[in-house]
Design a protein that fits this description.
The chain is an alpha+beta fold. It is built from twelve helices and 20 strands. An eight-stranded mixed β-sheet has the order 6-5-14-15-16-13-18-17, sandwiched between helices. Strands 8-2-1-12-20-19 form a six-stranded mixed β-sheet. A three-stranded antiparallel β-sheet has the order 3-7-4. The protein starts with a strand and ends in a 23-residue tail after the last helix. The protein is globular, with a radius of gyration of 21 Å. Helix 2 (about 45-55) runs parallel beside helix 9 (about 305-320). The longest helix is centred in the last third of the chain and has 31 residues, at about 325-355.
Length: about 400
């Protein structure tokens, strides 16, 4: 049995702690905040996320909290035209083995945290911000912001897009600012007119903007997320913004989506960031997972899904014996590198080609999507949604141009 240090106690960190602890190792989770909690609003979970959650032992609990969505709807946000619909009921669930669901982030986090607290081999520590590490012959010592030191046999960096572990391991500077600002609001479902309470993830696409909404928290709330391709250059997180600023930011928004947008209150803004894919996520006894390794834009709805896959794959590859972490971490990165890079670049491509075109390009997009039948849509997402990590079933990703994001 080894002592594994893990920087970061978010969804990816707790999931990885469970995956590693199930191999008999002791895991010390070092969380920078003063409490274990998860910020944010709604996220989408495709079947590949549920397969991973099942492997980690918390799939049933998350399903109970989730809203199992009937359809993904792509709408023209200016004309109100229904461009494409992907059914997510019997045929989809039979094909991919699990539902497509939406949750509040806490609906995933709470079951993971409860499972971690119930696992004897997991030691949860708050107020322990990792700032760096030093490797030596018999292990790794991490430095904490308060001047403390913690020693272990290996270190896993699950400390997010601004990872201190990545800063030392990769050294690629600050995250890449996308130029897109997202405004989020969560409102009680009672405030939504009955005729607009759809059990769908609905995306309204317009010129240099898009607007997404779906129910969360067992259907008790509606999650609103409106994004502008506004050229933002500075990353911001959860900054309160006025209602008028949001409502004035989406010119040409059609009547129905406008009614929904006007329901929002207590809006907060984020400027979306990601990073370019890199080949090296490991350095001796140190490895990265989740957003520390491969942060991606939200447009493929796969950030949390890929972090959960990482947790399962690393947990199974780390084995039950102490030692040989260098080789095991190298194998982990080798198994995950191409898939996660493809997800990163597809997310960028969706934002560029599908969600924000204007004029002629928007019309061409609508015609292309409208021509796709449900089975053709299923084939396009199968490499992502159909993966079953831990069961040897992961479809090869499409060829992706790493610099341009072009799918070939």
């Amino acid at each position: 049995m080894a002592k594994i240090l893990l920087a970061g106690g978010g969804i990816g960190g707790l999931a990885t702690a469970l995956g590693v602890a199930r191999q008999g190792h002791r895991v010390v989770v070092l969380e920078s905040r003063d409490t274990f909690t998860e910020l944010g609003a709604g996220i989408q979970l495709a079947p590949n996320a549920f397969h991973a959650l099942d492997r980690l032992g918390v799939g049933a609990e998350v399903r109970e909290r989730a809203v199992h969505i009937d359809e993904l709807c792509f709408m023209d946000g200016t004309t109100g035209e229904a461009v494409a619909r992907m059914p997510l009921t019997e045929g989809y669930r039979e094909r991919f083995g699990n539902p497509y669901a939406v949750v509040h982030r806490t609906d995933v986090y709470a079951p993971l945290l409860a499972a971690a607290r119930a696992t004897p081999g997991i030691d949860l520590r708050t107020g322990a911000a990792v700032t760096g590490y030093r490797q030596h012959r018999d292990g790794v010592t991490v430095r904490l912001a308060d001047g403390g030191r913690v020693h272990g046999d290996a270190l896993i960096g699950a400390d997010g897009i601004n990872s201190a572990v990545r800063r030392q391991l990769v050294g690629d500077g600050a995250p890449k600012v996308s130029g897109h600002t997202i405004y989020r609001s969560v409102i009680p479902i009672e405030r939504v007119p009955v005729e607009l309470r759809w059990n769908t993830v609905t995306l309204w696409a317009g010129p240099k903007w898009h607007f997404v909404h779906y129910p969360i928290a067992g259907g008790r709330f509606l999650n609103l997320a409106a994004t502008r391709d506004d050229g933002a250059r500075q990353a911001v997180t959860a900054v309160p913004v006025g209602r008028d600023l949001v409502l004035n930011g989406f010119p040409g928004l059609g009547e129905v989506p406008r009614r929904l947008l006007e329901l929002g209150e207590e809006w907060r803004s984020w400027v979306l960031c990601d990073r370019d894919p890199v080949d090296r996520w490991t350095d001796g006894r140190v490895v990265l997972v989740g957003d520390a390794a491969h942060p991606m834009l939200q447009y493929a709805a796969q950030g949390a899904c890929q972090a959960l896959e990482d947790a399962v794959v690393l947990g199974e590859l780390i084995g039950t014996e102490a030692g040989e972490f260098e080789q095991r971490f190298e194998k982990f990165v080798g198994e995950r590198r191409e898939r996660t890079a493809a997800a990163q670049m597809v997310a960028r491509e969706l934002g560029r080609r599908l969600y924000h075109p204007e004029g002629r390009r928007a019309g061409e997009r609508n015609a292309m999507l409208a021509a796709l039948r449900p089975d053709e849509l299923y084939r396009k997402v199968e490499w992502l949604h159909g993966a079953r990590v831990g069961e040897g079933r992961v479809t090869e990703p499409p060829l992706i141009g790493r610099r341009t994001g072009t799918v070939r």
